Every structure is written in structure tokens, then in C-alpha cells.
Amino acid sequence: MNKVKVLITDDSIFMRKLLSDLLEKHPKIEVIATAKNGKEAIEKIKEYTPDVVTLDVEMPLMNGLQALEVIMREHPVPTIMLSSTTSEGSLNTIIAMEQGAVDFVAKPSGAISLDIHKVKDELINKILLASKSNLTLFKQPIQKEKEILSSHNIYSKIDLLGNQRKVGDALVCIGTSTGGPRALQTLLSMIPKSFPAPLFIVQHMPRHFTKSLADRLNSMCNITVLEAVHNQKVEMGTAYIAPGDYHMEVIKRAGSLFIHLHDAPPKRGHRPSVDMLFQSISTLENYQKVAVLLTGMGNDGTDGLKQIKERGATETLALAESEESCIVYGMPRAAILSGMVDEVHHLKDMSNRINQYILS
Fold first, then answer.
1. Separation of alpha carbons 275 and 116, rounded Å
2. Which terms are listed as keywords in the entry (predicted)?
3. Number of other residues whose CB lies within 10 A of the CB of residue 315
4. Among 303, 308, 311, which residue's Cα sits nearest to residue 334?
5. Where are the beta strands (DSSP E) in 228-360?
6. 275 has catalytic annotation
7. Active site annotation includes 177
8. Would the CA dihedral through 62, 65, 68, 69 be positive or negative?
9. Which of 49, 115, 123, 245 has the greatest number of CB atoms lying within 10 Å of its CB?
10. Rounded distance, CA 126 to CA 356, Å?
């Protein structure tokens, strides 16, 4: 059996030792080298050709973001970021995933986490998943994709038509996991400011990081992107991201939609859960709906999609991201195999199709 060869990068010799010991115990992983900063990591990638790199976000000499930029440009390799939960650390982690990191793991208690064993299973699972990820997707910057998409005439047409829709009779719900931040940036940046529907998003991500994700996307998109707040009234042209560690549902009260957050037990290991969001959407009557499943591991969202389709099949468009553009082809694949998906699209075409359907 070929083991996954891992390079560990952390400025703390103690953390390098802890991580090495933790990973070496797994029968499918081999730690082939360690590095104390980004510069050394780049050199050791050339020397050892690892299958996966773990990269600390905050390091001296060359930090994780700086190193990642060089790695993805010169020697692309699946990379997992190790991050603190500070506001700066979480924002840098979101930026890292835009730049090509497959995923991240939050250190339980800061830069030197003696309790790193608490995230052992998560780290191992993400390393094994990263070793199978579609790395070719990281070789084209998101900005280039955005420039290509912006040239499509449909967007100028949408801006002119956006205000013709009656308020509140359409909505979009999106579920994603591994690779989601990058996918959401591509999709949401192509939604026009006058978009005549709200968007509800579940991204599998722990608390603190969803706020940084929402703020980052809000700074880059025409629409407003927010981390959802309990009892918040829903507005058109706004995307609501479920906060980490809370389920998000959408309810109707006095003729308006509101956000409902709660901390019920995780559903199939996830909180927030895409299934939970989609199931709440299924109960809303007289709405034109688009349900979207993007890149991610597992099958969260498939059961919820079934409920949406069963309760209003004629007014719901179910979309799944194609294998070609998925970093991890898990959640879309599960939905497609269920027979509930109407159309499959490359990520670069997804926002175009959503706009066409909502405005048709």
C-alpha cells in the first residue's frame, strides 16, 4: 500500500514534533520531512516531492500565505493550512483557500497547541482527502475566470431586468464543503447587485471562520454577503452564510422571510447542515427556488434536495457542480446519483444559469 507522503511546516519545533508523532501513527500516512518556515518548505517540496503539505499560516521569514503563492505557481501540491482562530488568522486562512489551499484545520488553542490531538481525526481525514483532490483547478487564478465570465452579455442584461421581479417570490440555496470558499467567490462575484432574490449558503466551516469568509466575499462581490444572524429579516440581493456551529433555517412570518439559527445536534456530523437548510426551504410555498450543490466531501444536501423536489418539483431547479470543476467531487456526485439533480454545470457557468432561471 502506497502511503500519503506528508511535509509538515511549522515554526515551532515542538509543534513539528507533535504533528509528526500524531500523523506517523496512521497506517496510510508517512511524514517524509518537516520545515520551519515557508522558504524551507518550498525547498523541501522540490527535494522530497510530497503528496500533501501542511502549512502553518503564521510563520517568520516567509509566512504561509507567501509560501502558498510560490508553491501553487512553481510546484503545485495539495496543501492543508493550520490556523489560529484569531480574526487575522481566520481571514488569512480564507485568503489561503482562494490562493489554492485545499482545506484548513484550526489549531485548538493558538500557535502552540498542546492539545492538537483534539483535531487528530479531522487533520488525518483532510490530508487523505487532499491527496486525491483535483489540483489542476488551482493553476488558473480566480481573477482570470472572473474576467472571462464578465465578458458574457447576460450580465448587462440582468442589471437592466433585475428590478422587474416581484419582491420575495424567488430564492437560491447553496451547499458546499471542501473547496467551497474558492467556489463561492467564483459564483457570487458574478451575481449582479440588483439580483432579485436572497441567497442562503451553508459552508462546512467552524465558528469564527464563517464571519471572515462572509466579510471577505462581501468585499469582493456586487451583492451584500453576511454571516447570518438569528431572527434577521431576509432581503433581496443579499447572501446569508450560516455561522459555524449553528444550523440555519429559513422561516416565513407575517409575509416575510427570517433567518432561524439553532444549535440542535449535528446532522450526519455537520453543523451547519445543508440538509437542514434545504429541508426548511422545502416548506416555503409559492417560491421559485434554485438549489445548488458545489464541491465538497460526503453527501450532505442530498436528502434535503429530495424534500425540496418532492414538495415543489415544478418550481425548483436543482443544480450540481460538474466533476471537472470540483476540488472534491463528493456532495454533487451524491446528489446526481440520487436522481434529484436537473442540470450539471461547470462552476464557471453556474452563476450564469442561476441568473437565467431566476429572471426567466
1. 30
2. Chemotaxis, Cytoplasm, Hydrolase, Phosphoprotein
3. 14
4. 303
5. 238-241, 247-253, 256-262, 288-293, 316-321, 343-345
6. no
7. yes
8. negative
9. 123
10. 36
Helix (H) or strand (E) holding 95: helix 87-99
Q: pTM higher than 0.85, yes or no?
A: yes
From residue 298, alpha-carbon distances to 78, 162, 213, 295, 333 in Å are: 19, 35, 22, 10, 9
Of 90, 131, 133, 177, the active-site residue reads 177
Catalytic residue chosen out of the listed positions 26, 204, 208, 345: 204
Which of the residue ranges 45-49, 311-315, 350-354 would you say has the lowest mean pLDDT? 311-315
- pLDDT recorded at residue 360: 72
Closest CA to 271 of 258, 261, 283, 259: 261
Catalytic residue among 11, 56, 300, 303: 300
The DSSP symbol for 267 reads B
Q: What's the rounded Cα separation, in Å, for the pair 196 and 158?
A: 10
Q: How far apart are CA 322 and CA 344, in angstroms?
A: 6
Within 10 angstroms of residue 337's Cβ, the number of other Cβ atoms is: 11
Q: Whole-angstrom Cα distance, residue 278 to residue 307? A: 8
Other CB atoms within a 10 A radius of the CB of residue 349 amount to 18
What is the rounded average pLDDT of the residues 278-305? 96
Does the annotation mark 270 as catalytic?
Answer: no
Cβ pair 173, 279 in contact under 8 A: no
Distance between first and last Cα of the chain: 53
Mean pLDDT of 226-252: 97
**Burial environment of residue 245 by CB neighbours within 10 A (0 to 12, 13 to 18, 19 or more):** middle
306 neighbors 272 (Cβ within 8 angstroms): no
Spell out the domains of the chain, with CATH numbers in brackets.
4-138 (3.40.50.2300), 142-358 (3.40.50.180)
